[in-house]
Amino acid sequence: MSSREQKKLQTRHAFFNAVLDLCMTGQSFSSISLRQVTREVGVVPTAFYRHFNDMESLGRALVVEELGGTLAILSDSLQIGRKRSFDRQIAKSIQLFLYMVSEQPYYWQFLVSERYGGSEAVRKAINELVKKHAQSLADDLALQPAFTHINGYDRRLLAEAGVNMFFSWIIDWLELTYTEDHDDEIDLNEIEENKQLMLHNCTRQAQMLFYGAYNWKSSEETLLKD
């Protein structure tokens, strides 16, 4: 990669980071202006168009390039359903997931905040990303002998339920992490106890979901009307 290409890539990531920083302060993506972003990056507004067509294309690129890479790493690292190890698979997977949330709080904050946000382009990009992640989990579950009796359609539903449940934990976990890192007066022992309690509860929720699926029969009918 040439120095010019490197500089262009660095500027592109600077735009991504500017959006994440602004969103972390409480702004929604749809409320952020192009001028705000360029001011954060330290470039003139016309420089923006060398990288993106508009704010929607910036948001879409952020989701695909940055969040997509994060979810790909998570999918590759999770152990739910893997044949290679059955030792505390669910507990280890939940710990790994929450650890990754702590490591990249801006990405996960953006994902959960904008999943149902005001930008259609960002919503669609996140939706596609979540579907891809759920399919990866469904494929992973197919490797687990405990779920071979469930058909592919139901495994996909189970994976989607799991992903939605995992994502529902993110904001609460981030609040604990943010308090731990930024509040000098907080009792760190109390925070650690709260984190361990949340980890315990999240693990049990996942166990109830996946252990319950072990007893599910795909032949069971789902009736919507009498």
UniProtKB/TrEMBL annotation:
Note the superkingdom of the native organism.
Bacteria
Q: Which stretches are labeled DNA-binding?
A: 33-52
What are the GO MF terms of this UniProt record?
DNA binding
Q: Does the keyword Chaperone apply?
A: no
Ranges in coiled-coil conformation: none
InterPro entries in alphabetical order:
DesT_TetR_C, Homeodomain-like_sf, HTH_TetR, HTH_transcr_repressor_FabR
The record's section on Pfam families has: TetR_C_46 (PF21943)
Alphabetically ordered keywords of this record: DNA-binding, Transcription, Transcription regulation
Q: Which residues form the HTH tetR-type domain?
A: 9-70
| Listed name of the protein | Transcriptional regulator, TetR family
Q: Which organism is it from?
A: Psychrobacter aquaticus CMS 56
